[in-house]
Amino acid sequence: MATPTHSIHDVAVIGGGLVGSAIAYGLRDRVQKIAVLDEGDVALRASRGNFGLIWLQSKGYGMGEYSRWTFHSVRQWPRFAAQLQDETGIDVALEQKGGLTPLMGDYETEARLAWMQRLTAQPAVEPYEWKLLDHRQAADLVPGLGKDVTAAIWTPHDGIVNPLKLLRALHTTFHRGGVSYLPHHGVEKIEQIAGVFHLTTPQGTIRAQKIVLAAGLRNQALSEQVNLLLPMAPQRGQIIVLERTRRLLETPMITLRQNDEGSWLVGDSQEDAGYADHVVTLPVLATLADRAVRTLPALKEVRAVRAWSALRVKARDGFPVYEQSATHPGAFVATCHSGVTLAATHALTLAPMIAAGALSAELAPFSTRRFHVQTT
Amino acid sequence: MFRRLDASDGAPAPRTVRITVDGAALDCRDGDSVAAALFAAGITACRDTAVSGVKRGPFCMMGVCYDCLVGIDGRANQQACMTKVREGMAVQRQIGAREVPI
Fold first, then answer.
1. Fewest CB atoms within 10 Å of the CB: A9, A41, A61, A134?
2. What is the per-residue pLDDT for A1?
3. Minimal CA separation from B15 to chain A, in Å
């Protein structure tokens, strides 16, 4: 049952992608009236263009707390996926059987190994198992591995999910009660009047006691309105999709995975392309395809059926941002690149904090204070 | 279900091309796509889907829907609507997702 929009919501979540949806999902047990305000079909939608990894090994270089937060979410994922399946009947195809970063040649291997050693040596990183595998060890996990893959970084904690099924499962819970999903409600203006937030949208004003800014790259402009400085730096990724085949790849790689239904995704390009998510470019696609075929030569015979671009939601330093506005209490901002990996902890850990009205001290490193120019 | 439109007056009679469908001989009209030849022979389902294994046949007939996938001369997942019949061509029903031999 949809909540009438003229009443005051307990919480309005701005953003119906994976971050906003996971938070709204987690709020349901603690908050009565929740609205999720989304844009329309034409929007920057990282949640519909991503690769769907649940990934630990690449996270937190330069901010160990991000690694720790990620590890926390990775361990919550089995419970989160089971809850979603119980509630919606949708299997989000979670697999956490370990994952690989394939490395080609000594230069890549030495650089990545040193990078992993520095990352995991940071004091805030919670230690986890990882290894540098040689070609033979990696080939035990990936039948048909190309000879160009001379080494790989492996952890048992990495995995995959079907990100579209995840988004659908979260939205399915909204229809079943407790959350009003409001598309075409892109927020233009935020005001707090006598403690109540007034959100101006093309469909009229939405009022709420608390708000969560989970609008991806739009968070930079929205955060300014609650006096938070959040410089965003979109990073474009291009993905090639190959036709469905029988399941072959059981151990996902950061650049290549096979979905539960058989499709292959080839990705992990990284470009500064502004906000241009409507084009793909041949040089990048050719590089992705070449590397995929060197990784798994059998893919040479498998046809590409689609390609697309999407923009990673990244703050300027690449790390998540969680903060409550000091000048607009009750306004929370949540922004991160890893809306899939962190979905479990957004639902099970972050949402209860927002419901309670305060973020815990462990989230202090993720505040926007790190972007401030020091005055002393 | 499908029938050919009458040939225009004066057009030469098209040549016949013989292919096999799952091993059975089928005479087709030269110039037809594999999908058109299957329809003309009353074969409306050419594959079982990769995920749920249900029957599918040619739908868009113009190369975008990928519902007409068949094996052709040993190559899996070929688009029947985008491939013209050739003498001696061996067409196989596509059963589920294709294999990737390693």
1. A41
2. 42
3. 32
- Evaluate whether A51 touches A268 at the Cβ level (below 8 Å): yes
Answer whether A298 sits within 8 Å of B97, measured CB to CB: no
Q: What is the pTM of this model?
A: 0.92
Percent of the residues in chain A that have a pLDDT greater than 90, as a whole number: 89
Average pLDDT value for residue range A326-331: 97
The ipTM of this complex is 0.83
Q: Give the closest of B51, B96, B102 to A144, CB-based.
A: B102
Q: How much of chain B is helix, strand and coil, in % rounded to 5?
A: 10, 35, 55
Q: Which of A246, A247, A305 is the mutation pick for testing B, counting most B CBs within 10 A? A: A246
Contacts of A296 in chain B (CB under 8 A): 102
Over 80: is that where the pLDDT of A5 sits? no
Question: What's the domain range around B87?
Answer: 16-92
In a domain, B100, yes or no: no
- CA-nearest residue of chain B to A300? B100
Write the pLDDT tens digit of every residue in A53-93: 999 999 999 999 999 999 999 999 999 999 999 999 999 99
Q: How confident is the model at residue B3 (pLDDT cuts 50, 70, 90)?
A: confident
Residue range of the domain that includes A257:
98-157+233-312
Domain-located, residue A349: yes
Sheet holding A256-258, edge to edge: A256-258, A264-266, A235-242, A304-312
Same-domain pairing of A174 and A108: no
Q: Which of A21-25, A77-81, A142-146, A271-275 has the lowest mean pLDDT?
A: A271-275
Q: Which residue in chain B is spatially nearest to A306 when comparing CA positions?
A: B64
pLDDT greater than 80 at residue A127: yes
How many C-beta neighbours within 10 Å does residue A61 have? 17
Whether residue B7 has pLDDT greater than 70 = no
Residue position matching structure tokens 């889907």: B49
Residues of A with CB under 8 A from a CB of B: 143-144, 243-246, 248, 261-262, 296, 298-299, 301-303, 305
Q: Report if residue A293 sits inside a domain.
A: yes
Q: Do A303 and B77 touch (CB under 8 A)?
A: yes
Domains contained in chain B, number: 1
The one-character DSSP state at A3 is P
Tokens 């084009």 — which residue?
A279
**Residue A15 to residue B1: CA distance in whole angstroms:** 49
CATH number at residue A333: 3.50.50.60
Sort out which chain A residues have CB atoms less than 8 A from B77's CB and list them.
243, 303
